[in-house]
Amino acid sequence: MPKSHCNYGHAMTSENTVIVQPNQSKYPWRQCRSCMELTTAEVAEIEHKIRDGAALRSLGLSFAKSLGLDIYREQNPKWSAMIEALSAINAKAAKIASIRQRTSARTHCGRGHELTPTNLDVEMFNATSWWNPRACLTCRTILDRDPRYRAEEVKPVYQRREVKHVEIGHIHRTHCKQGHPLTPDNIVISVGSTGHKHHQCKICCDLTEEDAASLMRQAREGVALKRMVTAPGKDRNSLKRYRENNPEWDATFTPLIQANSLAIRIAGTKRLKQAITHCLRGHPLSGENIYYMKNGARQCRACMAYRSQKPASKTQVERAKRALLTGLGVMDIIKRGNGKERIMSPEQWKLLRTTDAAFNRFVLEKTQNPRSVVVMQNRLGIAPIAGIIRAVPKENVNTDKTIPLYEPRPGDYEWLYSLTPRNMLKSDRDEVVSNIYMELAERRLRREDVPSRVRAMTQQHHKLFPQREAGSFNAPLSLDAPVYLDGTTLRGETVSESLWERI
């Protein structure tokens, strides 16, 4: 039986009911019109907030009021267009303010040049003041010399057509410039970018054994493929044909040129990095302020000290605890990967464990992986605790680490409640919603899989409580239903007087 009142006590009459179906809902449902409708004061308050700089996403409306706002905007298109335009302007202004706040405090550019009043690019500031208010004049001068960054007309590049088979066609010449006869066996055809065929002498163009040995020697010396010196008349097509005809030679040559290319790129990157004299926060990269990593990269010690002293917030601590309780490991908390953001940095994790004894004990007791516990309890670990008693590992802990932590959002209860069948009692619907909440919190269910899981949870609830499946407390029960939940006696077996005896 449909409910007679909403959650706030309003009567769900035909005049006070409206059928709604938001985008995230699969089925429509009845909604209380009193909870949805916007009063004149509420409309004026929304417009006042928008004019003061708020956006539509930051109004803080309830789930029902947001549905009412959508209906009001459909009924008042002019007002909706005005509010939407102001909201877009406010959102862009907030984004610009955030970018300006992040970039206006810089004292040095990305290449380490000091941003003094004489080194600021006024022309670039006028053009890109919303995202780059402190442009470097020295970097602008360097970029102006590079033709890749000039606003010049780009000539179209003709793509070479892929030709699977090329016929020799008509040969106009009988001999090459060196006097070799251009017979069909001594002709190599190359197709240009425009599709024109060129007849070349195979004796003059193909690589000899001496040419191949010279290229192999240059590859072993670390020369890149583009920098190799070949004999006159030999080009990249000659090398391509030789590599196709000699696969054993190519199996040795290919790894060498790949290693040379990687080494040259690494050396070029190191030269560019070595030219940087200051970090992004303006600290000099010299002397004792440099920390060399295992790969040779330089790090600013002042910035590392700042990151290590930044404590974790309460939200990060709660998320880390929930991650440990749901089966995630330490590396899942402090390391990025597989498109997931980390909960806190390794420096914050170390600082939190060394300063908060209760959190440190919680980590050692609730970590599910025994190997991680052995590493953390080692004498070289972070704040080990001797004689700690770990809790018994849970059997139902989810091992699928691809399911992210559940982050509560405004309106989740109304969304989950709307997915349950409307012929159920409110207490039964709340029980199904609580079961869904439990699976989300235990990281056994994804948010996008909730609509398909609600039906299975509802069927499971009907199996546990078959006498309430009709959806009403006053609904008649079947004679085949059990008298007690833990017994086998049926209601029909307890009937002592038939209906015909009363007539």
Explain this structure to me?
The structure is a single chain. Helices cover 44% and strands 5% of the residues. It is mainly alpha-helical and 503 residues long. The longest helix has 28 residues, at 247-274. The chain is elongated. The model has no long low-confidence stretch (mean pLDDT 77).
Question: Which key phrases capture this entry?
Answer:
503 residues; two-stranded antiparallel sheet; mainly alpha
Give a short overview.
The protein has 503 residues and is mostly helical.
Number of helices: 20
Secondary-structure-derived class: mainly alpha
Order of secondary-structure elements? EEHHHHHHEEHHHHEEHHHHHHHHHH
The coarse silhouette is elongated
**How are the strands of the biggest sheet laid out side by side?**
1-2
Ends distance: 31 Å
Q: What average pLDDT do the residues reach?
A: 77
Fraction in beta strands: under 5%
The tally of strands reads: 6
Question: For the report, how would you describe the main beta sheet?
Answer: 2 strands, antiparallel
Helix amount, in percent? 40-55%
Radius of gyration over C-alpha positions, nearest whole angstrom: 37 Å
Topology of this structure?
Layout: E1 17-20, E2 29-32, H1 33-36, H2 40-51, H3 63-75, H4 77-103, H5 122-127, H6 137-145, E3 187-191, E4 197-201, H7 202-205, H8 209-220, H9 236-245, H10 247-274, E5 290-292, E6 298-300, H11 301-309, H12 314-325, H13 330-334, H14 346-355, H15 357-366, H16 370-376, H17 412-419, H18 426-441, H19 450-464, H20 499-502
Antiparallel strand pairs: 1-2, 3-4, 5-6
